[in-house]
Design goal:
Spore Coat Polysaccharide Biosynthesis Protein SpsA, Chain A; 12 helices; binds guanosine-5'-diphosphate-alpha-D-mannose; 7-stranded mixed sheet; alpha/beta; elongated; binds manganese (II) ion
Length: 368
């Protein structure tokens, strides 16, 4: 029988913890194909959470308690993962809140997706059938929906609707590989980091709908300000899409600078200055994208892999130039030439960037 470990991080959850554990216990008994263990990772709660768990432990032998210092949610999970891997040798690990926001009755739905071949199953509040609590205040709704939309767009991963919710089932091989990269994200941003890692490493990710319940006991531990800052910086530093846009801007400066130099300073022919500057920008874009934006899937260090991909890159870039030229001309013909630069910026953001990002991903920096 395969073993799954459910990690329940707790900080002052004495109002809910017994009920959460009971809920899991009842479901576990009904599941015949998995042996389910629970690891409560308690960060030195002051309200008697650990004592309640110790009491239940006497009766439930698949319940374990790990006591740690209070270092944040991410750190608590890393401690829990390491404990589970060393002591229990599981095949699968669950993340789950210990405040009754996550219904244990969903556990079989996660297991089913894993049995069907998923490596990472995430409970989503934002797909059909899922929901956030109706009685959440407006600011909380905006906060949750806003954070998820920002991350989705920032990473250009529109298919992943849920990035922050911590109700998940993840295969242990994936967690073992991820730990070195994610172990320093000590706060709630850890949830974003582990999903980003899984996506970049081609794990098979599936979402299932969940109805997130508002907590009744105790209060949320999230520090919204810190969370926003950490999430924002995480996306800026890790999104290949945002890096790609920055590389494009650098390319624009190079293109402009070099053509200015040739045409104005050296008084070269305009066509010559334009060719040299455009090609310099293309070369810089190619190298920066390879070693920075798409560094996690960069080309092999072989000339035979660089040359054809560089040629494809040139071809796609020529397409961008063509689209821009035609688009701006078309707009000018329809609306007059006064605002040509506005049309240019709109076309770059709405057409050229998505077009080239998608094609580079498809033909140059392919998913391995
Ligand atoms: N051990 C430990 N240490 N547990 C913690 C800590 C900590 O420092 N901080 C929070 N927890 C536990 C809580 O006790 C709870 O069981 C769970 O982590 C979630 O924390 P909440 O305080 O209930 O936060 P939330 O409801 O706002 O969390 C939401 O956002 C998180 C981050 O994206 C949920 O969607 C979570 O599932 C999600 O991880
Ligand atoms: Mn909660």
């Amino acid at each position: 029988m395969r073993r799954a470990v459910i990690i329940l991080p707790t900080y002052n959850e004495s109002g809910a913890i017994e009920q959460v554990i009971h809920g899991i216990e009842i479901i576990s008994r009904a599941i015949k194909t998995w042996e389910i263990h629970i690891v409560v990772v308690d960060s030195n709660s002051q309200d008697g959470t650990a004592e309640k768990v110790l009491k239940l432990k006497k009766r439930i032998h698949r319940l374990h308690l790990l006591s740690t210092e209070k270092e944040g949610l991410g750190k608590a999970y890393i401690h829990g993962f390491n404990f589970a891997i060393e002591k229990l040798n599981p095949y699968l690990i669950f993340e789950m809140d210990a405040d009754l926001s996550h219904d244990p009755k969903e556990i079989p739905n996660f297991l089913k997706k894993i049995e069907e071949g998923a490596d990472f199953v995430i409970g989503s509040r934002y797909i059909k059938g899922g929901s956030i609590p109706k009685d959440w205040g407006l600011h909380r709704k905006i906060f949750s929906i806003g954070a998820n939309s920002f991350i989705r767009l920032g990473f250009m991963k529109l298919r992943n609707t849920e990035w922050t919710n911590g109700y998940r089932a993840i295969k242990v091989w994936l967690i073992k590989n991820a730990i070195p990269s994610i172990k320093n994200y000590s706060g709630y941003v850890f949830q974003v980091a582990i999903l980003d890692y899984a996506l970049k490493n081609k794990a098979h990710i599936q979402e299932i709908p969940i109805n997130f319940q508002d907590r009744i006991h105790g209060k949320s531990k999230i520090n919204s300000f810190q969370y926003i800052i950490q999430t924002f910086t995480y996306v800026l530093l890790h999104s290949s899409f945002i890096k790609f846009v920055i590389v494009g801007l650098i390319g624009f400066v190079i293109d402009f600078g070099i053509s200015y130099l040739f045409i104005e300073k050296y008084r070269s022919a305009v066509w010559l200055g334009t060719i040299i500057s455009t090609e310099s920008a293309i070369i810089s874009n190619f190298l920066l994208n390879n070693f920075w934006s798409f560094s996690y899937k960069k080309l092999d260090h072989k000339l035979s892999s660089y040359i054809p991909n560089f040629l494809k890159f040139n071809l796609i870039s020529s397409g961008s130039i063509l689209i821009q030229t035609l688009g701006v001309q078309l707009a000018v013909n329809s609306f007059g030439r006064n605002l040509w630069y506005v049309y240019k910026v709109i076309i770059i953001f709405l057409v050229v960037i998505p077009y080239s990002y998608i094609l580079y991903n498809k033909f140059v920096w392919k998913e391995k």
